[in-house]
Amino acid sequence: MNIQLNNVKKSYQTEQETIHVLKNVNVELESGCWLTITGPSGSGKTTLMRCLSGLESVDQGSILLGDFEMSKEKEEKTRAFRREHIGYVFQDFQLFDQFNLLTNVMVPLLPYEKKSVIEQKAKQLIEQFGLSERMYHKPSQLSGGEKQRTAIVRALMNDPKLLICDEPTGNLDVNSRDQTMKVLKDIQQQGVTIILVTHDLELTSYSDVHAMMRDGQVNFSSLSYA
Ligand SMILES: Nc1ncnc2c1ncn2[C@@H]1O[C@H](COP(=O)(O)OP(=O)(O)OP(=O)(O)O)[C@@H](O)[C@H]1O
């Protein structure tokens, strides 16, 4: 899925002030590419991912995902587009405490597809990510790394064309991190566009393009935090 962001601006209004988070973001990414975005804490990476996936609206500018101009569409259409085409791995997992791992993975698709089909797909991915033995455990019984892998599995359930990963390896040890990256690489090789947000500069080696976020802008040329 080609991605194009033009002059995207986004602010938050608090009681005291207006926080200008995205000041003028321009991004162009070819379908099937892997973009890694790094940048200091608070520079707006998560906000950008939320706007890109339609979880938040932008104040100005345009977001084009393939032929879909997200910034112009109504919420209902955006929600359907996200459900069909985007996978999102949240920084804080966003798993349901009351459900076991298998149900957590299935739950976003349950209202829309046949349960037996979703369950088969879920079990296949759960096995691929080495989580079969934890399938009937609830999030409170999972390690940080297991929760993170569960969040990745859930994001892959709809065969996304765009996979957004916000710090997907923050809780993983180096071996699990590298394993996860290899699985993501395989997924990219199947044609999926990947956007990865991370503080871990080593992960840029997996990507085709690296950009740094700073002062509300995305800069494609810098490789350091300096
Ligand atoms: N809903 C909100 N209301 C007000 N301010 C917000 C809101 N969401 C984010 N912010 C502010 O926007 C700025 C950017 O936040 P964001 O989470 O996008 O940064 P980040 O680069 O992802 O940070 P980190 O690397 O720590 O995850 C921060 O100053 C944050 O406090």
UniProtKB/TrEMBL annotation:
GO terms of molecular function: ATP binding; ATP hydrolysis activity; transmembrane transporter activity
**Signal peptide (UniProt feature, chain positions):** none
Key word Nucleotide-binding present in the record?
yes
Q: Looking at the keywords, is ATP-binding present?
A: yes
Start and end of every ABC transporter domain?
Answer: 3-226
Pfam families, per database record? ABC_tran (PF00005)
Gene3D superfamilies, per database record: P-loop containing nucleotide triphosphate hydrolases
Q: Which family does it belong to?
A: Belongs to the ABC transporter superfamily.
Please give the name of this protein. Answer: ABC transporter ATP-binding protein
The opening ranks of the lineage are: Bacteria, Bacillati, Bacillota, Bacilli, Bacillales
